Predict the 3D structure of the following.
Amino acid sequence: MVMNMVEVNEKAPVLAKAQIEIVATPETVWNIMADIEAWPSWNPDVKKACLKGELEEGTQFQWKTKVGKITSLLQKVEPPHLLAWTGRIMGINAIHVWRIESKDGKTVVVTEESWEGALSRVMSGRMQTMLEESINSGLQYLKSESERVSD
């Protein structure tokens, strides 16, 4: 299957990538990850999330983290393999991509995000640390929830 690619900005001042292996089917992982409004139930970093329509390209969603309220736009929705969106908060333009693959009876989730804009250039060191922590904790929460519902 050939998927249309959505890519983070490799030249952005802030860029983070991580992956995790989950003992659950890709469909289980997808169902948890793609249920945007349920994010706060398994990811304590997300305080609130509201999808403004169907889970499809072009749909907007708003969500709140400890940093603030983020408005995002779904760019790619290819169940159960790819979910990507762009978002904006405090003058930072973000691109976030989740890829889900089956490998040796397990599921590998790869996530990456880039931030660009004045604030991310001026505070790139601190923002880099913040993004890496956010991505890694998000993957851990996704793993925990996916494996919990798979039991």
Q: What stands out?
A: The chain has one domain: 14-150.
